[in-house]
């Protein structure tokens, strides 16, 4: 993937006017997340959800600090942090995830004779595509529509975790929570001096120089 924000490191903002102590505290906690820590998922669920996260958001192998998606999802479920609303076709957050992980493993065993985390990458992708299309029919779904779970919970929770972690912010030029400095130039294709500069074709070196000064 091309580097759209060359030379940009969002963590350079840590001690700048862009972030206050509360922002630093939140970001430090995310950075300190143990990628193998889990309290909500049991061991079988943990292996399955790790494999699902790898298929939904494959992270670049060269990234030194991958976003610990499975651990972040586990923490969300352990705290029972709900959205404040839900699709009426789905059970509550925790119940939906437990049911779906059981069902996905059941589908994998029916089709391939092994749990989801043990089947190969292409088989995992095909199974998740079947879930997305509503073409998963194991009784373990217990009446929960698989395609609704995929769209409203699986994608929502995993992708939200990915873009909530500082490891992902450099690739989209995000400066982190806007506290206390905020953002002023809100019009299209305008940016504040403390925001990342996007490397448009032929302007990569200019963007690199500007991003080296962002803070």
Describe the global form.
elongated
The level of helicity is 40-55%
Segments where pLDDT lies below 50 for 5+ residues?
none
What about the largest sheet?
A: none
The sequence of SSEs as H and E is HHHHHHHH
Summarize model confidence as the mean pLDDT.
93
Give the terminus-to-terminus CA distance: 25 Å
Structural class estimated from helices and strands: mainly alpha
Query: How many helices does DSSP assign?
Result: 8
Tell me the total number of β-strands. 0
Rg measurement, Å: 20 Å
β-strand percent reads under 5%
Walkthrough of the structure:
- This protein is an all-alpha fold.
- It is 47% helix and 0% strand.
- The protein is built from eight helices and no strands.
- It has helices spanning 21-31, 43-56, 69-78, 93-112, 121-133, 146-164, 166-169, 204-212.
- The model has no long low-confidence stretch (mean pLDDT 93).
Could you outline the blueprint of secondary structure elements for this entry?
Blueprint: H1 21-31, H2 43-56, H3 69-78, H4 93-112, H5 121-133, H6 146-164, H7 166-169, H8 204-212
Helix pairs in contact: 3-6, 4-5, 4-6, 5-6
